[in-house]
Write a structure and sequence with these properties.
This protein has 2 helices and 7 strands. With 109 residues, the protein is an alpha+beta fold. The chain folds into 2 domains: 31 residues; 60 residues, SH3 type barrels, CATH 2.30.30. The strands form 2 sheets. Strands 4-3-2-1-5 form a 5-stranded antiparallel β-sheet, with no helix packed on it. A two-stranded antiparallel sheet has the order 6-7.
């Protein structure tokens, strides 16, 4: 009888903790990373002055993902491991523009 009460209390505690976690994630706008092996990404770089860009201009390929860690490889074969917050999916210029059916106007997404 005593064990049943412990299990009920543990279940109730886990339920309440999950509810708080879900609420905090919703408030912070937290979401799952959509990076997968084979994706092309840009790595965040150190800001040296006000004119430097936030991300490097050289694209890298995602080799694997474990939790919040992403393994990347450059075209030269150099491997890097970064947190998902320091990586951004690479989008080519063709991803930003598309031509309509009559090809008379360009639609920018």
């Amino acid at each position: 009888m005593y064990r049943t009460d412990d299990n009920e209390a543990k279940d109730k505690d886990m339920e309440i903790k999950q509810k708080r976690t879900d609420y905090a994630d919703t408030r912070r706008g937290a979401k799952e990373s959509d990076l997968h092996p084979g994706d092309i990404v840009l790595l965040k770089q150190k800001k040296e002055d006000k004119l430097s860009t936030e991300f490097q201009s050289v694209p890298y390929e995602v080799m694997g993902k474990h939790g919040n860690e992403v393994s990347n490889t450059s075209a030269d074969g150099v491997s890097y491991r970064r947190n998902v917050t320091d990586v951004k999916k690479y989008r080519s210029k063709t991803d930003y523009t598309s031509v309509s059916e009559d090809e008379s106007s360009v639609i920018i997404k």
